[in-house]
């Protein structure tokens, strides 16, 4: 039996067709979302092709579709607007964000345009005035980290097209029941903060919660960002996370979102597998670096 690469890999898979088909075999290119008795491949258009494991004739890993630097900048811009903290300031193409220390994402600077010694030192001063360490969220190709400088918490940005499906209740603010499931000590005003966009809080069966923010990139694309997804431990493995996320994306689609993204810690294989099964593919990576370490 042909050995398959790990789930999430982008592959070209050749497989046997039924004996009455005009062609004895064919190929499909896409990401592996299941590798059991039936191999499931999701194509770049979102279609899922099911292949019996015994019909797989050959498989090879192929590179991800190339992403332009401008596409990274546009997505990072929309994502920064979707999680800006409670105190933020644009400074020479950087968005400086403070969330009173709650979460790295809300307490880091995003270099969306220029990156020089001046911007770094000004970011250090800005965070020092707020008694916070100066963290830089450094995306691929937008910020060069010198060799030897330590980084922390590499994140994978994953993206897909938005298509409406099921619906779930979505509120403009997190209810007490939402906060009980979420459990993390993140202030409500940090959770509800958004710049020039709209934020919603989805809840399902009192056991699954999540956050979705709709913001616009400079190129006009309206993005839906999923975050803060959590399922109560007693209700896991029932498909609630997927149902919840699909419902929140339907809510975002009604507000004009055509693309969606998630930001996942690289080591969180469970979350990556969930989003890959929904059609999300790797867009780019980012990691955090201390501004002081760059001087």
Automatic annotation (TrEMBL):
<protein>
    <submittedName>
        <fullName>Acetyltransferase (GNAT) family protein</fullName>
    </submittedName>
</protein>
<feature type="domain" description="N-acetyltransferase">
    <location>
        <begin position="165"/>
        <end position="295"/>
    </location>
</feature>
<dbReference type="InterPro" id="IPR056934">
    <property type="entry name" value="SH3_Rv0428c"/>
</dbReference>
<dbReference type="Pfam" id="PF24553">
    <property type="entry name" value="Rv0428c_C"/>
</dbReference>
<keyword id="KW-0808">Transferase</keyword>
<dbReference type="GO" id="GO:0016747">
    <property type="term" value="F:acyltransferase activity, transferring groups other than amino-acyl groups"/>
</dbReference>
<dbReference type="Pfam" id="PF24551">
    <property type="entry name" value="SH3_Rv0428c"/>
</dbReference>
<dbReference type="InterPro" id="IPR000182">
    <property type="entry name" value="GNAT_dom"/>
</dbReference>
<dbReference type="InterPro" id="IPR056935">
    <property type="entry name" value="Rv0428c-like_C"/>
</dbReference>
<dbReference type="InterPro" id="IPR050832">
    <property type="entry name" value="Bact_Acetyltransf"/>
</dbReference>
<keyword id="KW-0012">Acyltransferase</keyword>
<dbReference type="InterPro" id="IPR016181">
    <property type="entry name" value="Acyl_CoA_acyltransferase"/>
</dbReference>
């Amino acid at each position: 039996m042909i050995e398959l690469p790990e789930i999430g890999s982008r592959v070209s898979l050749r497989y046997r067709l039924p004996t009455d088909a005009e062609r004895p075999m064919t190929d499909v290119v896409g990401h592996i979302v299941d590798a059991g008795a039936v191999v499931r491949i999701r194509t770049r258009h979102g279609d899922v092709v099911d292949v019996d494991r015994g019909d797989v004739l050959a498989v090879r890993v192929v590179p991800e579709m190339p992403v332009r630097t401008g596409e990274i900048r546009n997505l990072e811009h929309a994502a920064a607007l979707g999680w800006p903290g409670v105190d933020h300031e644009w400074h020479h193409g950087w968005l400086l964000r403070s969330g009173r220390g709650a979460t790295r994402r809300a307490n880091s600077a995003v270099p969306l345009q220029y990156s020089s010694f001046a911007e770094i030192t000004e970011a250090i001063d800005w965070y020092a005035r707020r008694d916070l360490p100066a963290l830089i969220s450094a995306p691929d190709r937008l910020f060069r980290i010198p060799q030897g400088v330590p980084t922390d918490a590499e994140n994978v940005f994953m993206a897909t097209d938005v298509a409406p499906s099921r619906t779930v209740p979505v509120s403009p603010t997190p209810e007490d029941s939402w906060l009980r499931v979420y459990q993390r000590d993140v202030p409500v005003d940090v959770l509800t903060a958004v710049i020039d966009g709209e934020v919603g809080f989805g809840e399902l069966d009192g056991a699954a919660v999540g956050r979705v923010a709709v913001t616009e990139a400079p190129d006009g694309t309206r993005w839906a960002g999923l975050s803060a997804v959590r399922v109560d431990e007693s209700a896991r493995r029932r498909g609630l996370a997927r149902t919840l996320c699909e419902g929140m994306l339907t809510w975002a689609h009604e507000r004009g979102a055509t693309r969606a993204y998630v930001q996942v810690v690289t080591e969180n294989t469970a979350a990556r597998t969930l989003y890959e099964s929904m059609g999300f593919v790797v867009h780019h990576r980012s990691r955090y670096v201390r501004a002081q370490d760059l001087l």
